[in-house]
Amino acid sequence: MEFKSEYKRRQDEVERGLEDQMEILEGKIPSELYKSMSYSLMAGGKRLRPVMLLEFSKFGSWDYKKAMPLACAMEMIHTYSLVHDDLPAMDNDDLRRGKPTNHKVYGENIAILAGDGLLNYSYETMIEGMASENPGYVLALREISRAAGVKGMIGGQVDDIKNEDVNIDIKTLDSINERKTGALIKASVLSGAYFSELDQDKIKNLEAYSDKMGLAFQIVDDILDVTGDVEKTGKKSGKDLENKKTTYPSVYGIEKSRKIVDGLYEKALINLKKAEADTEFLVKLTSFLCSRDY
Amino acid sequence: MEFKSEYKRRQDEVERGLEDQMEILEGKIPSELYKSMSYSLMAGGKRLRPVMLLEFSKFGSWDYKKAMPLACAMEMIHTYSLVHDDLPAMDNDDLRRGKPTNHKVYGENIAILAGDGLLNYSYETMIEGMASENPGYVLALREISRAAGVKGMIGGQVDDIKNEDVNIDIKTLDSINERKTGALIKASVLSGAYFSELDQDKIKNLEAYSDKMGLAFQIVDDILDVTGDVEKTGKKSGKDLENKKTTYPSVYGIEKSRKIVDGLYEKALINLKKAEADTEFLVKLTSFLCSRDY
């Protein structure tokens, strides 16, 4: 089957999972809050993190559908971070996924609370789903909570704020990328791997895979901020230059950055194949992520 | 022993628990983020919720100290909600617990992320502490996650925003209070009760107790907003009148509001005593909460 339709099928599955989670809240919370949460959560998007999480949850003998609460939670965490990131006091963005940002539609106060709501609901969702007998579920939950936290994504966001108007070296930049974007990508891979109860060696390999993927994903994002088409990316381009941010393209230029992505892709594939499982779709996904134009 | 010193001893225990949790992060997250989180979390405060949670965790045969991660998490959740609540886009407050609010010191962007960080760290803390063999721990975790969420506290905050410049009836006001303040108070009681593995009848009684206590606590807060001394409360008075908010004092006046608190107190005590446990301290605590001047 072609990659696009294979991806679409998985994306739709996540979409239904998210719809189910939101349906639980409908009519039970203030309608403005419900609308604001739905507006950002159901705004499309690639659903990359939950798709990856579910895919790695198929490696073991457990029914991967039991990992759906983890997958949905991952997307809620990603979405809340975007809603808060777009706020006037943060990046002050007007456009996200091709639509006005949450606070532009619902106001700053509701956007803050909708973000808080999505973060909290991600945990409610994961905790409700914990009935599963799979001991890997709790390990996955722990992995996600760490990645989303101050040692992971939130810490990366704080350091990223300081990465404006200043020159930082590549080591610092890598450390920011690793946490700001890499942490959730890595947690998507590893929480799936924990759910599948893979052994330590395989988990180490997938950790190496996800480290490379996370960095490649961020570099492609930064390249798209320079070369991207707003019609395709759904967000304004040229922001990094405007904010004088250090990025791979700002340091190495576009062409060399692309070569670095290619190198990461090759190495990531080697690690992925060591998983000794059906990685056919994941190989295509990895290739797509490194060559995407949105 | 006198109530004050009994309370102080418990408060200090919580203080040490919170210090331990923050120490784990020291040097491992961006220093500005660490300072901002500590600033609000370690700013004193009554520590009412964790003190209650631990007290109700003593009712069963489990070592109540194993409930410390839940207690700390409860205070982190309470604190993050205050940090976000004080933001310019929300209540725009300058003073909290007698000190400048978080965003006044660290800026809005860091305050938003510190709030997010505290919320996420509350779950990390609870999940790390889950090693315990006590099946009541997970029920407590679930109770807390629901209370903190959009059906609980966050939903109450959204409806509370709309309770400005408009007249709402007592039923709507009660529903806001139940969620905005009551949900976390109730969860402090119930999560302790779950941790103690109390039977359904006792839990029902404690639910009734906490419903009354939560409402009484909020009415006392609203009375203090009218009559309180900033030196004691640590926050500006007269805000509800300024924002034309409907409260018990605005509807019934101070004297009748105090009588309502007395009535709730009497009823709460009857429910509390049905717990058939050592409630000596809790009786004094309930009395204090209904008659406090800060």
Automatic annotation (TrEMBL), chains A, B:
Annotated catalysed reactions: isopentenyl diphosphate + (2E)-geranyl diphosphate = (2E,6E)-farnesyl diphosphate + diphosphate
Cofactor requirements of the protein: Mg(2+)
EC number(s) on file: 2.5.1.10
Stored SUPFAM superfamilies: Terpenoid synthases
CDD domains the UniProt entry points to: Trans_IPPS_HT (cd00685)
Gene Ontology terms describing biological process: terpenoid biosynthetic process
Any one annotated GO CC term: cytoplasm
Entry GO MF terms: (2E,6E)-farnesyl diphosphate synthase activity; metal ion binding
Name of the protein this chain belongs to: Farnesyl diphosphate synthase
Enzyme class: transferase
Domain of life: Bacteria
Family: Belongs to the FPP/GGPP synthase family.
InterPro entries according to UniProt: Isoprenoid_synthase_dom_sf, Polyprenyl_synt, Polyprenyl_synt_CS, Prenyl_diphosphate_synthase
This protein's UniProt keywords: Isoprene biosynthesis, Magnesium, Metal-binding, Transferase
